[in-house]
User: Fold YeeE/YedE family protein from Sphingobacterium arenae.
Amino acid sequence: MNNINSNGEKKSKWYHNLKFLFVGSLFGILFVKSEVVSWFRIQEMFRLQSFHMYGIIGSAVLVGLISVWIIKKFNVKTIHGEKITIAPKKFNKGQIYGGLIFGFGWALTGACPGPLFAQIGTGATVIVITLLSAIAGTWVYGYFRERLPH
Assistant:
């Protein structure tokens, strides 16, 4: 049996994806326990009433910075032995507009894309509307992408 698809990539058995389910579940539990999915914590952050969310976001940024530095410094490779490359990014004004729209949506709904599923999993089923809105917004962006400032 050939385990290579038409793109030349190795195919995995369906049960190899269970690791993603496991890690995603742990990530969701971490979100719930750290109160990242709490609408009240998010509102505190946007009202500048608490350091809680800024501490969590700052910790994530610090971990990301250290991780990228380690990857570059020690030429870390993927689990399959491939070189990890990080493409340079160019700043443009569209990032400001996108960030503002994202921030307004986050402040209004009390949810960003990361914890949406964890919020739904905790029983906040009204977040399904936010999830559908995020999907619709992604579609709209894809549709108008070529006409937007990049």
In short: The chain has a mean pLDDT of 88. Helices lie at 18-33, 39-46, 52-73, 93-109, 116-121, 127-144.
